[in-house]
Automatic annotation (TrEMBL), chain A:
Entry annotated with the keyword Transmembrane: yes
UniProt keywords, alphabetically: Membrane, Transmembrane, Transmembrane helix
Membrane-spanning residues: 54-80
Protein name stated in the entry: Transmembrane protein
Domain of life: Bacteria
Keyword Membrane: yes
UniProtKB/TrEMBL annotation, chain B:
Segments of this protein annotated with the region Disordered: 379-398
Primary localization class, coarse: membrane
Keyword Transport: yes
Transmembrane parts of this sequence: 38-64, 84-102, 114-137, 149-172, 321-342, 348-368
Protein's recorded name: Phosphate transporter
Pfam families xrefs: PHO4 (PF01384)
Length: 100, 398
């Protein structure tokens, strides 16, 4: 039953990557919302007396931008893969290359 | 040509059967209007179907032995103008469609891929015997019915469930102290984004299967010879069929997934869809074939577990799991039956027409039944009855 071994090999990879992307990104998004609310203060918080913190807005937008970037890279990766290319991070910023 | 029409019909049922996977949570949390949600999902499925250009021609190889490694049909099956092969494919597809429609009628989110594979396996057993089925692969990679269908079906909902539970728990931990009105607005946006990703992934995954089957039929009947490419019109038709099916919306299943399993709040919806998207995309990339249905259901269950105080209707979940288990064998039985019926009638054109007529009759009957208790965009979000322990209403009666 080699299949079982193969399946578990694939499964733990999926679980790991899935946890990072599937739970990590939403958490980052949630963190963005948290800081946005902190930034806005007042009625956005359960404690309506809290003062607004402009810095929170900046951090929040940064979080959203990171999430968007990750999603965009993910889609690019898949589309590029379908067209026989791959995404490379060897130049730090991602570039599209031919598949080896 | 009947095979092509049937394959497209399957693609269509695949679309409306699986809309729920992507959009059920967005509709349930009112992040999107029901109509808007299915339109968005349909468009993304269309795009998705075109995006992935990887050749899906060998899709049937995973479960049945009717193709050579390079995608050409086995010689023995093409001896009489491909009829033997076409007939297996036709009966298999018809089996898949009938099962898809039946589970839709019952509002159960069963796997369309399992229905397709089940139908094909059944028709192959009927046509070629048990040795015609690729049960366990050749041991060199994840392959065969066990490796490509059964194991992923067991593992993927669990993985999705774990990820969604973790995501939900983390999200709620992070946003503690933020007003609910504020989080809901934010997470609805996140939900729309992540649900769109699932739709896109669904298009790239599921439309491929039908494209592969149609191309196989074309090759078998001598209408196409290139095993490296899929004719453009096949791609276009499949993409359109799955998009149209999605747009039509499988409201019954959307209702079960969105309202029946767990009462979903926007943060949970986003956690569920993100988990689904991540699992589907990662695993299809790693060659771990799975069903979007299983993943989406697992994720939604996971968000129910991850949020403190949330109620999971285990009874509904149990019914779904039962449906998953019986999907493959049931579709196989229908596929096999149809093959025998056609075979008795000579297996040729007459047999094919009879099988097709049976399919149309079954589809018509189930459509008629569905009209008696319609579920549509207007009532898809009604309160789920039967959550009270004493009530015996089940998804069947909705």
């Amino acid at each position: 039953m080699n299949n079982v071994t193969f399946a578990f090999e694939a499964a733990w990879k999926v679980l790991l990557i899935g946890l990072v992307l599937g739970a990590g990104l939403p958490t980052l998004f949630a963190f963005g919302i948290r800081t946005m609310a902190w930034g806005q203060g007042g009625s956005a918080e359960v404690d309506t007396a809290s003062a607004p913190h402009p810095v929170g807005r900046v951090i929040g937008i940064l979080c959203f931008a990171l999430v968007l970037l990750a999603v965009f890279l993910g889609i690019t990766y898949i589309v590029a893969y379908g067209f026989g290319k791959e995404l490379s991070f060897e130049h730090v910023y991602p570039t599209i290359q031919n598949k080896d | 040509m009947l095979v092509v029409v049937t394959a497209l019909a399957f693609d269509f049922t695949n679309g409306f059967h699986d809309t729920a996977n992507a959009m059920a949570t967005s509709i349930a949390t009112k992040a999107l209007q029901p109509k808007t949600a299915v339109a968005l999902s349909g468009i993304l499925n269309l795009i998705g179907a075109f995006l992935s250009v990887e050749v899906a021609l060998t899709v049937t190889n995973a479960v049945v032995k009717i193709q050579n490694k390079d995608g050409t049909p086995k010689d023995a099956l093409t001896a009489d103008g491909g009829q033997a092969l076409l007939f297996i494919v036709l009966a298999g597809l018809a089996g898949g469609i009938i099962w898809n429609l039946l589970t839709w009628l019952l509002g159960l989110p069963s796997s369309s891929s399992h229905a397709l594979f089940g139908g094909l396996i059944g028709a192959t057993i009927a046509g070629l015997g048990f040795s015609g089925v690729n049960w366990n692969g050749d041991g060199s990679k994840l392959d065969g019915v066990v490796g490509k269908v059964i194991l992923p079906a067991l593992l993927s909902p669990v993985i999705a469930c774990l990820i969604a539970a973790a995501g939900t728990w983390l999200i709620y931990a992070v946003v503690r102290g933020v007003a609910e009105r504020y989080t809901n607005t934010g997470f609805r946006w996140g939900q729309i984004g992540s649900a769109s990703l699932v739709s896109l992934a669904h298009g790239t995954n599921d439309a491929q299967k039908t494209m592969g089957v149609i191309t196989l039929a074309l090759i078998a009947s001598g209408h196409w010879t290139d095993t490296e490419n899929i004719p453009f019109w096949v791609k276009a038709c499949c993409a359109l069929a799955i998009a149209l099916g999605t747009y039509l919306g499988g409201w019954r299943i959307i209702r079960t997934l969105g309202k029946g399993l767990v009462e979903i709040a926007p943060p949970q919806g986003m956690a569920a869809e993100s988990a689904s998207a991540a699992v589907i995309l990662t695993s299809s990339h790693l060659g771990f074939a799975l069903s979007t249905t299983h993943v989406a259901t697992g994720s939604i269950l996971g968000t129910g577990i991850g949020k403190r105080g949330a109620e999971v209707r285990w009874k509904v979940a149990g019914r779904m799991v039962t449906a998953w288990i019986i999907t493959l064998p049931s579709a196989a039985i229908v596929g096999a039956l149809l093959w025998y019926i056609g075979d008795v009638l000579g297996g040729g054109l007459i047999g094919a027409i009879v099988v097709f007529a049976l399919l149309v009759a079954a589809a018509g009957y189930m459509y008629f039944r569905s009209r008696q208790k319609p579920v549509h965009a207007g009532n898809v979000n009604d309160e789920w009855e039967g959550s009270a322990p004493s009530a015996d209403r089940t998804p069947e009666t909705v």
